[in-house]
Structure formats: structure tokens, C-alpha cells
Specification:
Elements (H helix, E strand, L loop, with lengths): L1 H14 L19 H8 L4 E5 L2 E13 L9 H4 L1 E13 L5 E14 L18 H13 L6 H18 L1
Antiparallel strand pairs: 1-2, 2-3, 3-4
Length: about 170
Amino acid sequence: MNKLLLIFLTILMASCSTVDINSPSQTTFIEGSTMSDIVDKYGPPFSVVDREPQVTMIYYIRKSKSSNMVWVPIVNLVAAGNSHRVERYELKFDSSDRLVNQTTESVKGFTSVYTMGQNEGMVGNGGMRDEIEFRNLGKFLAKRGIFFDQGLWKLQNVSNNYFQKYKD
């Protein structure tokens, strides 16, 4: 019976897919794309700054990998967690709402599942930001006829939380 359990656990651990958090994401923001095309494809940005004649949008892309220690009894109490790579994209649009320039920076880090705070996005209300900021973004995009799902915006907030945590 113990051998059968050991075989099952070995197969289970081997079948878990892994994510290479060291390589950049496959996200490609193509210059010349419209603001509407980008929001349709990637969801709403984290934030937007409208300074005539240019608009800047901030996007976050996060990759996570769970620690394999989660499967080891007792050890998982202190070693289980997630490794993250978070990329921050700053997209600049011209007056016709076309992407003209972008910059990227990334950070990596590890967070133990058992020490995560309520605002880190994995538990509780993590990822929720100021309602005023959400409404401002919504108004800005609505003026351009661009609408989005609020749940997608929360993902940007969670990724921003991790980026800020690992940045320092």
C-alpha cells in the first residue's frame, strides 16, 4: 500500500506543469496598434495618464510558479509559496490613440503562502484599489468608446502589488 501511495505521489508531482519565470512573457504590444485593440486583447490597464498630446498606459503581466515543497509534509508549512516574475509596461499613445512607444521593466521574487498579507492579491480583498481611480480609468476609456470587465482590472492591481513588493 505504501509503495502504491509513493508511486501515486511521484506521478502527481511529475505531472505538475512548470512555468519558467526567468524568461520574459510572450506579451507583444505592437506599435501602431490602437488603444481599443490593446484593451480588447489585454483587458484594462492598471492606470492611464492623459497629458495632451500623449496618453500613457501602465500594464502589468505576472507569471507565477508554485513551490514543489507544497507536496512535502511538514516542510510545506514554511517552504510553500510562489515565485513571481512581474513585468511593467509603459505604453505611450499619440493623439490618434495609436501606440508609438513602450518601455519595460521586470522584477522577480518569492512569497510564502503562509506569510502573505491581505493586500497581496492571493487572499482576502487583495488587489482592490481606490474606487476613484477605477472610476477615472472607466470614464477615460468610456469617452473613447472602450469598455471593460472590472474583474480583469483587479488582475492588474494584484500584479502591481507584487511589482511594488519586489521592486525594493
